[in-house]
Design brief:
Blueprint lengths: L7 H13 L10 E6 L17 E8 L4 E7 H12 L2
Antiparallel strand pairs: 1-2, 2-3
Length: about 90
């Protein structure tokens, strides 16, 4: 499966569920990088971000921990849209 197999509604539904369960943060990342994928799994769709795709690395820092997440472009858009609705 690739992220291309998922439509926008599916991606938004996944992002919404992950936000509701607390598995995705609702706050702004402290740092964001974009570039060619490096094979990490996307935290929204769980599909590998391939080297021929643009991937986002998002860093979140709190007093308790540091978290780095990886997302496809489309998955980041879905996360941003759902995060904005909260």
């Amino acid at each position: 499966m690739t992220v291309a197999n998922l439509n926008e509604a599916e991606l938004r539904q996944r992002a919404s569920g992950l936000l509701a369960s607390g598995r995705l943060p609702t706050d702004e990342p402290s740092a964001t990088w974009a570039g060619s994928g490096r094979g990490e799994r996307c935290c929204v769709c769980h599909v590998q971000v391939r080297s021929d795709e643009i991937g986002f690395d998002l860093s979140f820092q709190s007093t308790e921990r540091e978290l780095e997440l990886h997302m496809h472009t489309r998955c980041r858009i879905a996360w941003e849209q759902e995060r904005g609705r909260r």
